[in-house]
Amino acid sequence: MTTCWCGSTEFLPFSDEYAECCNCGTLVLLVGMPPAKLIVEDDDTDFYGKAYWLDHQSDDFGYPDIYKRARADLTERNLYWLKVLLKYRLPGAKILELGCSHGSFVALMRLAGYDASGVEMSPWVVEFGKKTFGVPIFQGPVENLDIPAGSLDVIALMDVLEHLPDPVATMAHCLKLLKPDGLLLIQTPQFKQGMNYRQLVETQGVFLQQLKSDEHLYLFTDSSATRLFQQLGAEHIRFEPAIFGHYDMFFAVSRVPLPSDTADTGYAALETKPQARMALALLDIYSRETAATAQLMADKAHLIALLESSEADRAARLRVIEAQGNENVNLAAKWEASEAARANVATQLEASEADRAARLKVIEARGNENDSLAAKWKASEVARVNVGTQLEASEAARVDVGTQLKASEAARAELDANWWVRVGRKLGIVSPKRG
Fold first, then answer.
1. How far is CA 131 from CA 128, 136, 316, in A?
2. Rounded to two decimals, what is the model's pTM?
3. Is 95 a domain residue?
4. CATH number for 265
5. What is the dihedral of CA 389, 395, 396, 402, to 10 degrees?
6. Number of separate domains in the chain
7. Among candidate residues 224, 334, 241, the one with its CA nearest the CA of residue 294
């Protein structure tokens, strides 16, 4: 059964390999690592042996190997840790770094005037650190070292707390090794309550890099880390800005109130020893580099803001252009439609003109025909008048002829009568005329 460092066995699911403790909020590896796995007896086969530093870091995580880190860590992180250390303890303090790796931070602390040494699990790494930086490094675990209780001013654990199978027991032992006002200086990944594994995967969140199921056993929140040390009697904790603040936390913890900022005093102490001046010069360079980097980041942020503003303006202008383009397309479509309508009207006009011309021709033809008909009508009217005149003349002649005919008929009748009388007379039928 999986058990959290706080003793709880109740968890909320997080991923296939991790669960969130319902009691303290720590992210816990479901398949824990036995303490014996920390021990390196065979550098060629044990987990934290030689291969961990030469192959595992680079092959599995893409990190630089120990040779490259022995050089890069000095400027990338060691100077920052020294700068913070000077706030809490002046040079001359006795310091032990657990998990000191290649020993570069131990070397820098010694350069600054601290009585510093380191602890590592692999015999190969211990010898590498001694040879590379000429510093004292012991093979751990720390519980097996012959260190008097209450003899240390500071114990530093940089990226170590998350590897411990029993952080309660190891931290309790470290607190025993400290002087009453001693302190722990710790850097460790920070799990933030509310993190969602699916969202981390979808967004490729940087905290995914800390889900190392073969070595990161406990990933603390700031509150669960505070709870751990308060449970051990170290109730005073102060969080410092972490170098890799997007996934780490960095803090000092002590059984007594932590001192106020003594960085100026610490820097002044470096000026008192010739060798420490080299460390001071490195810190000055680091400060200038940090300021320059901050300025570059500010300039970058400003340029990004300008770029975003420019992009927003460009996008707005593009939308206007697109709108105008759409309007132009609409106008072009309307123009094409109007052109089509105009062409249609022109066609209709041409057809109308042709029809009008045809009708005009018909009208002209009809006009000519009407003129001809009018002429004919006039001629017929003249003829009709002539005929009327002739008819009147004919009627007059007819009347005259009738009159003449009547007179002729009367004359003829008279003649006929006279003829019959004469015949009768001749025949003796009619008596002779008497006189």
1. 5, 10, 62
2. 0.72
3. yes
4. 3.40.50.150
5. 170
6. 1
7. 241
Distance (Å, rounded) from C-alpha 213 to C-alpha 247? Answer: 17
Cα 218 to Cα 13, 48, 159, 212, distances in angstroms: 15, 17, 12, 10
Residue 225 CA to residue 97 CA, distance in Å, equals 19
Q: Quick one: pLDDT at residue 127?
A: 97
In a domain? residue 343: no
Which of 68-77, 172-181, 284-293, 389-398 is the least confident region? 389-398
Question: 435 falls in which pLDDT band (50, 70, 90)?
Answer: very low
- Give CA–CA dist 281/267, Å, rounded: 10
Q: Is the pLDDT of residue 248 over 70?
A: yes
Report residue 3: phi and psi, to 5°: -130, 130
Cβ–Cβ < 8 Å for 78, 158: no
Q: Which domain holds residue 253?
A: 11-272
**Alpha carbon distance 21, 32 (integer Å):** 14
Non-local CB neighbours of 392 within 8 Å, separated by 6+ positions = none
Domain assignment present for residue 364? The answer is no
CA dihedral 290, 292, 296, 297 (to 10 degrees): 20
Contact 23, 51 (CB under 8 A): no
Q: What is the largest CA-CA distance in the chain?
A: 220
Angle at 24 between CA 23 and CA 30, to 5 degrees: 80
Residue 152 lies in a domain: yes
- Side-chain-side CA neighbours of 338 within 13 Å: the count stands at 6
pLDDT at residue 97, rounded to an integer: 98
